[in-house]
Design brief:
Helix content of chain B: 55-70%
Largest interface: A-B, 56 and 51 residues
Number of strands of chain A: 2
Radius of gyration of chain A: 27 Å
Low-confidence stretches of chain A: 33-55
Order of helices and strands of chain A: HHHHHHHHHHHHEEHHHHH
Order of helices and strands of chain B: HHHHHHHHHHHHHH
CATH class of the domain at 127-322 in chain B: Mainly Alpha
Mean pLDDT of chain A: 77
Helix content of chain A: over 70%
Distance between the termini of chain A: 7 Å
Oligomer: heterodimer
CATH topology of the domain at 127-322 in chain B: MetI-like fold
Structural class of chain B: mainly alpha
Largest sheet of chain A: 2 strands, antiparallel
Distance between the termini of chain B: 62 Å
Strand order of the largest sheet of chain A: 1-2
Number of helices of chain A: 17
Number of helices of chain B: 14
CATH architecture of the domain at 127-322 in chain B: Orthogonal Bundle
């Protein structure tokens, strides 16, 4: 088990490094373009013209096509965009190749004077992902701010999805091939097929525009961002006050986000429940005279949950993708919305930061799921 | 009023027109296929077809997909306007209606005028024409992206599964890396960084990012197949690796590929719509459903159907492919039936 854990961990780290490198290359594609000949034909602009226009050059984008050349050069220097991408051979220009000082200088240059290693080392050792091109804000800080919103959203979404998936899945497995089963599975397929933004827009249309239940979109505009719920006095010790703050701005986005994973979970749950229900230990539980509810929930559903947990990890990726669409529809300033904005602005460092952050979370979640799978089910052993 | 350029004129001298008509005729014939008696001769595919016919859900999916193909191939004949034609008069009429009842905060039916029977969008373009022509884009993305994904995924899956060892480790590691990116975010990054390319190129990019799932399915299938006796027998007869791969293993991986492709088509339609919705897919004036949803968002209060109808169109198309894929899985792999 330990051996397996270490192997998986090393593999995950390798994948994250590869993801980082791919993201870096994608973000600097306009520098690497001369390597890819087909690219120029996509734009219909010859390569030289393109560089002159600076279409994908973030500094040009910021300063405009006719920006002052000196200022642009200064900004490029400040952001370190003039340094070589991967390899800096400056040390060898003057130094001798056999001298250790030259090699020391060479390695220092890679650390501080190449864009790739500088960004990599800063990200790894200092958790510093650089500054955005547009606003010169700290990327790590922006991501942190967005992650707080997205984590809330995803947590609420996954709770709703679990509730929906488990109830629908168990119901349709218990009443297999009756109208309840058909009804649940029909809605599960509809839920898988419906685009997140359609669900979101219909909710906006229904609850905000027609019923006027919730004042508006976003976090700032809503008049009642939190709904404070007092816990009644008879539920808590005397003298205490406990109140929940239910963020109302999250209700509709979480519902919209939860539909797809919920439907997927329902289908998965039904399949595993149908297998488990036919097992001997369930028959034994019935024979002992336990009531049907206990048999289904305690004996069958608990065992059926194990494979579902793995799907949950995979659904996390869908959830993060769905978060882009959900946050765009509901204008929530989360990670998805930020990465969308960053891509629209072609803001290198922010794009790299968000893609990297999201991928790391996804790889780690998958790793945890794989390991917890082994822990949950003692029958599974990895050699 | 000058009507040139409003009404669609079909160019019967173009071979593409006849291709469209031929596809339409084929679709009508395919609709009748379930009525035909199945021959008594037993084979894997005939048995699967019989099981598929018995599955009501799968047949609903089958007909949804067929109707979609029929609409797409007959798009020129069943819509009066080209999808990018802007009707200024209808737009003026619409804006007076919108001002009168705009933001009423309650349900409004679409204004069914005889000229535009689902109304016009904020640029005066016929919604119905755009919906009908949008089906062409959706089917194109389904076919092209899955075509690319199957070609790459099949080749790499076969090679990885058959040869094993370091080739397998390398290819599967590569697969892991692609799967470690959130799909939509990766496609968006590629599209943004290369500059927004033509719509066909976006179909190809979706395929280029989507092949790992196909490769995994085929690799798993090949891993179990290569232990079977018939492969050993072929090798004993002196068959080369290429012959075993192409003649013996490939036909046996067809069933999972068909299932994977029909489910993948649903995913591809959804991805293209999502990309277009976010502005990184089809660009104006391409009549893409996702783009229509995005453009209609601003008019959601009084004119909800501008974005909800294309959204429902996406849902129906994806629903059809999903149902068909599920049915095919049950039909082609009876062991997996639940």
């Amino acid at each position: 088990m330990l051996n397996y854990t270490i192997r998986r961990l090393l593999f995950a780290i390798g994948v994250i490094w590869a993801v980082y490198t791919v993201t870096f290359c994608l973000a600097h594609i306009e520098v690497l373009t001369p390597l890819v000949n087909t690219v120029e034909s996509w734009r219909g602009i010859p390569e030289k013209e393109w560089t002159k226009l600076g279409l994908a050059d973030p500094v040009r984008l910021k300063m405009g096509q006719h920006g002052d050349v000196n200022t642009i050069e200064r900004i490029r220097e400040e952001l370190g965009l003039n340094d070589p991408l991967f390899l800096n051979l400056r040390a060898f220009r003057t130094g001798s190749i056999v001298s250790p000082a030259t090699w020391q200088q060479f390695f220092t240059d890679q650390r501080y004077k190449t864009q790739y290693f500088r960004h990599f080392c800063n990200a790894l050792f200092d958790q510093d992902l650089g500054k955005t091109i547009r606003t010169r804000e700290d990327v790590a800080e922006i991501i942190w701010r967005g992650a707080k919103v997205t984590v809330q959203l995803a947590a609420a979404g996954i709770v709703l999805a679990m509730a929906m998936g488990l109830v629908l899945g168990i119901l349709s497995a218990v009443y297999q091939n009756t109208w309840i089963d058909h009804f649940c599975m029909f809605w599960a397929i509809v839920g898988i097929s419906a685009p997140v933004y359609l669900v979101g827009l219909m909710m906006i249309m229904f609850f905000i525009n027609w019923l006027r239940l919730i004042p508006g979109l976003g976090m700032e505009e809503s008049l009642l961002p939190y709904l404070t719920i007092d816990v009644p006095w008879f539920l808590i010790p005397p003298g205490w006050t406990i109140e929940f703050q239910l963020p109302t701005y999250l209700v509709l986005p979480a519902l919209a986000l939860g539909v797809r994973p919920g439907a997927a979970l329902a289908r998965m749950m039904r399949t595993t429940m149908l297998e488990v229900i036919r097992q001997d230990y369930v028959r034994t539980a019935r024979a002992k005279g336990l009531d049907e509810f206990t048999v289904i929930i305690k004996h069958a559903a608990r065992n059926a949950l194990i494979p579902v947990v793995t799907v949950l990890g995979l659904e996390l990726a869908g959830l993060l993708t769905g978060a882009i669409l959900t946050e765009t529809v509901f204008s929530l300033p989360g990670l998805g919305y930020q990465s969308w904005q960053a891509l629209k602005d072609l803001d290198f460092s922010l794009i790299m930061g968000t893609v990297l952050f999201v991928s790391v979370i996804y790889v780690m979640a998958n790793l945890l799921v794989d390991l917890s799978y082994a822990l949950l089910d003692p029958r599974i052993r990895y050699s | 009023m000058d009507t040139t350029g409003i009404l669609i004129t079909v160019d019967y001298s173009s071979p593409l027109t006849w291709v469209r008509l031929a596809v339409a005729v084929f679709m009508v014939l395919a609709m009748l296929a379930p009525l035909l008696p199945v021959s008594k001769r037993a084979s894997l595919w005939l048995d699967a077809w019989k099981r598929l016919k018995r599955n009501h859900g799968a047949m609903v999916g089958y007909y949804i997909v067929l109707v979609l193909c029929l609409i797409a191939s007959l798009a020129l004949w069943i819509s009066r306007y080209t999808p990018s034609y802007q009707d200024y008069d209808a737009l003026t009429a619409r804006s007076t209606i919108t001002k009168a009842g705009g933001g009423s905060g309650w349900f409004r039916v679409p204004d069914f005028t005889p000229k535009h029977w689902l109304g016009v969008d904020s640029l005066g373009r016929d919604i119905y024409a755009r919906l009908v022509h949008g089906s062409v884009i959706s089917l194109e993305v389904a076919v092209i992206s899955q075509g690319v994904a199957v070609v790459i995924g099949m080749f790499l899956g076969l090679v990885a599964g058959y040869y094993g060892g370091w080739i397998d480790a390398l290819l599967m590691g590569f697969t892991e890396i692609i799967l470690a990116f959130p799909f939509l975010l990766l496609v968006m990054t590629i599209v943004a960084m290369f500059g927004i390319p033509s719509i066909e190129m976006i179909f190809v990019i979706i395929g280029l990012v989507g092949w790992p799932s196909v490769a995994r399915v085929i690799r798993a299938q090949v891993l179990s197949l290569k232990q079977k006796e018939f492969v050993e027998a072929a090798r004993a007869l002196g068959a080369t690796d290429a012959r075993i791969l192409l003649q013996h293993l490939t036909p046996n991986t067809l069933a999972p590929i068909i299932v994977q492709v029909s489910l993948g088509m649903a995913g591809a339609i959804l991805s293209e719509a999502g990309l277009s919705f976010l502005g990184f897919g089809a660009q104006e004036p391409t009549p893409s459903w996702g783009l229509m949803v995005a453009k209609g968002q601003g008019d959601l209060d009084p004119l909800w159907w501008l974005s909800v109808l294309p959204g429902i169109a996406i849902m129906l198309a994806v629903f059809g492919f999903n149902l068909m894929g599920d049915g095919l899985r049950d039909a082609l792999d009876p062991r997996m039936k639940t």
